[in-house]
């Protein structure tokens, strides 16, 4: 690999690191190339990118980025999983990959500025999806006006009940 090829790989990796909110470094010792290709193919429809990286190039790619804290973890056989904007989908895909291939092990993850261990990466998969969070947000926003409307309607409703009770008492008395 000549210098220009290395520079292109470093630039491509840096772009992937900077655009991915969730990144996982995985160890793939003992996996065959066909198994790694199967992982790559499984990840593509989810918008998740799996790539086996050369450690020295990856260390250079993260220099000057928030991902620089991962530089010490680029040793041994390293595969990198880059998420799209949905980190939860990437974490769930990784969970399925690990279930199917016991040779894949999580070294470390990076999510929202935080370095995660294997349990932390699994925890990202358990987070609610973006759609669920948006639904909860809308419910919370709508709850205030709904309660105000209930309070405003209560006074009229209470007055109507009071008048109806008074009318029924008058009817009883004759």
SSE topology:
Layout: H1 3-19, E1 22-27, H2 33-43, E2 49-52, H3 55-62, E3 78-82, H4 87-100, E4 105-111, E5 114-116, H5 118-125, H6 130-173
Antiparallel strand pairs: 1-3, 1-4, 2-3, 4-5
Helix pairs in contact: 1-3, 4-5
Structure, explained:
With 174 residues, this protein is α+β, with helices and mostly antiparallel strands. It has 2 domains: 3-127, Alpha-Beta Plaits, CATH 3.30.70.1730; 128-174. It has 6 helices and 5 strands; from the N terminus they run αβαβαβαββαα. Strands 2-3-1-4-5 form a 5-stranded antiparallel beta sheet.
Number of E strands:
5
CATH class categorisation of the largest domain: Alpha Beta
Shape: elongated
Helix content: 55-70%
Provide a count of the helices.
6
The CATH topology of the largest domain is what? Alpha-Beta Plaits
At CATH level 2, the architecture of the largest domain is: 2-Layer Sandwich
Features:
14% strand; Alpha-Beta Plaits; 5-stranded antiparallel β-sheet; 174 residues; single chain; alpha+beta
Brief account:
The protein has two domains: 3-127, Ribosomal protein L10, N-terminal RNA-binding domain (Alpha-Beta Plaits, 2-Layer Sandwich); 128-174. Helix content is 59%, strand content 14%. The chain has helices at 3-19, 33-43, 55-62, 87-100, 118-125, 130-173; strands at residues 22-27, 49-52, 78-82, 105-111, 114-116.
